[in-house]
Amino acid sequence: MSEILLPEQHKYLQKFIKGSDTLLNEMEVYAEENKVPILSKDSAVFLEQLIFMNKPKRVLELGTAIAYSSIRIAGCLSRKGILHTIEKSKDNLKLAKKYIGKSGLGDKIKLIEGNALEIMPTLKKKYDFIFLDADKTDYKTLFQYSLALLKKNGILFIDNLLWHGYAAAEKVPAAKINATTVIREFNEMFIAEPALKTSILPIGDGIGIGVKIN
Ligand SMILES: C[S@@+](CC[C@H](N)C(=O)[O-])C[C@H]1O[C@@H](n2cnc3c(N)ncnc32)[C@H](O)[C@@H]1O
After folding, report:
1. If you placed Cys at 56, which of 29, 39, 84, 129 could pair as Cys (CB 3.0 to 4.6 Å)?
2. Is 205 in the pocket of ligand 1 (CB under 6 A)?
3. Rounded to the nearest whole angstrom, what is the distance from the C-alpha of residue 144 to the centroid of ligand 1?
4. Cβ–Cβ < 8 Å for 200, 161
């Protein structure tokens, strides 16, 4: 059930979501059974559309997990396109390598092992598209690094800005207050950023889109 849409709208829109291919389906089942958070299907399709439309040559992803979104991005890249994706969890890295191998898209995906907070300041060449999907407590810092690494007219795509509905909720359970505060503060900062043309879209768990305008 969606925490964002009214049940009626959610049920109606679910009818239009197409099934995934065999590998993606296997990954969706693994993620569900093992509680690995991956992009929702509707957000993933929207991400793929943006990649097709903008034909970015260099894409950076912060937070690979098991490489579900990495494989979806890589599958939409043009001939010269490449994805760099950063992951810090050793367990997830193992799975990401397995699934990237299975996907046959290994030549399109460069998996960078380590903490994006340490790796990003060492990256020199800019990117056309950056997908931010790491720990929410790291969002503010990773956002600043992303701004510096994004080319003019480049796109920043950020997941979880509605934070399972809590970002907009009047009452937030005690266990969710810290993360919700982080996301709320992040959203204020993101929307006010003068270097970007921004919006937050009610797709999946809330997608932030920023286009670098200066
Ligand atoms: C929400 S999951 C990513 C899901 C993936 N983008 C997808 O949709 O298939 C977040 C992942 O980011 C990783 N992560 C969180 N903070 C990170 C950081 N600072 N540097 C590198 N990886 C990070 C976590 O270990 C986790 O695997």
Report:
1. 129
2. no
3. 17
4. yes
Identify residue 199 by its one-letter amino acid code: S
- 145 CA to middle of ligand 1, Å? 16
* 60 Cβ inside 6 Å of ligand 1: no
CATH number of the 7-212 domain: 3.40.50.150
DSSP-derived letter for residue 132 is: E
With a 6 Å cutoff on the Cβ, whether 116 touches ligand 1 is yes
CA proximity to 124, closest of 55, 60, 65, 69: 60
Plot region of 16 (φ>0 → left; ψ -120 to 50 → alpha; else → beta): alpha
Residue 146's nearest CA partner among 195, 101, 87 is: 195
| Ligand 1 mean position, distance from CA 12 (Å) | 30
- In tens, the pLDDT along 181-195 reads 999 999 999 999 999
Provide the pairing of β-strand 196-201 with 207-212: antiparallel
| Pocket of ligand 1 contains residue 167 by CB under 6 Å | no
Place of tokens 């286009």: 211
Q: Is the CB of 86 under 6 A from ligand 1?
A: yes
pLDDT digits (tens, 9 = 90+) for 20-45: 799 999 999 999 999 999 999 999 99
